[in-house]
Specification:
This protein has 3 helices and 13 strands. The chain is mainly β and 280 residues long. The protein is globular.
Length: 280
């Protein structure tokens, strides 16, 4: 019941018309005008973090922890900007690469259970309202596979449209919808488990010391069937970019190999976040 209520809350908030009067994100919460922030983008490093980079360990909930239901999960995500924000409509072109790993460290020989590779190329447009930076819109072509062959091979492609909208210094909404191109012969039904769109809300304290992200991935079908991800982060020191990290996953599609198996897992570790805000 709680998951369904959260589902309704996030879907409603994500489609409400946004009246944005946002503050600028930046070092020490300084307010930057649009032109200054465009220059910040242009002068900034071309190579940067894309999604959250984390390392966690955890186990399944509702059963006794064992070497079979406990593991290490970590994610590496980077991007390389290919142009400055001088393309038509103030957009820029970039490459992105995310790799997610599920590592059975509690089993003999500590095998890597599954590796998920997610490269993509996209065009992103920073958004401004009344001389304030309020997020971005991104159009991407993505590929995702696990690099396996034979019956363990999983792969699909998608053309995705996503947005991150900063409401104020405490709240950001984000969402993403995609057109799937399924080429994996062993995962033709992947939309039933990995979904057709996602939506979420991120809450942070004004000093960015604490953060909470709630994300729902809508699985195919007309009923309220969602994969639910909840994440909590706590910055260890004000000047650092390392956080203690707690992640809860409930649903299907956490990894490609077992995309059609239900997982209910809690993990703890640490996370390194991108400069402005995280992509999902």
């Amino acid at each position: 019941m709680m998951v369904r209520l959260l589902s309704l809350l996030i879907v409603v908030l994500s489609v409400l018309p946004l009246t944005v009067n946002a503050q600028i994100l930046g070092v020490d919460n300084q307010k930057l005008f649009a032109d200054s922030l465009r220059q910040e983008f242009d002068r900034g490093p071309y190579f940067s973090l894309y999604k959250d980079n984390y390392f966690t360990v955890g186990t399944a909930l509702g059963s006794k922890p064992t070497g079979m239901n406990s593991d290490v999960k970590f994610q590496i995500s980077i991007s390389q900007r290919l142009t400055k924000s001088t393309l038509p409509w103030g957009t820029y072109l970039f490459l992105a690469y995310t790799q997610k790993c599920f590592w059975n460290v509690f089993q003999k020989s500590m095998p890597m259970r599954d590796l998920n590779f997610n490269p993509g190329i996209g065009i992103s447009k920073p958004l401004f309202n009344k001389d304030r930076y309020v997020g971005k819109v991104t159009l991407m072509v993505e590929h995702e596979s696990n690099g396996r062959d034979s019956i363990q091979s999983r792969s699909w492609n998608k053309i995705s449209l996503g947005a991150n909208i900063v409401i104020d210094d405490r709240l950001m909404v984000h969402g993403k919808i995609w057109i799937p191109i399924i080429d994996g012969g062993n995962n033709k039904d992947i939309l039933r488990y990995c979904g057709i769109f996602q939506s979420g809300i991120m809450f942070t304290t004004p000093d960015k010391r604490f953060g909470l992200n709630i994300m729902l991935v809508k699985r195919q079908g007309w009923n309220l069937n969602f994969n639910t991800i909840m994440e909590f982060n706590w910055k260890l020191a004000n000047k650092d970019n390392q956080y203690l990290f707690l992640q809860y996953y409930n649903g299907y599609g956490e990894n490609l190999l077992d995309y059609n198996k239900f997982h209910n897992r809690l993990r703890i570790g640490f996370v390194i976040k991108p400069k402005f805000f995280s992509d999902f």
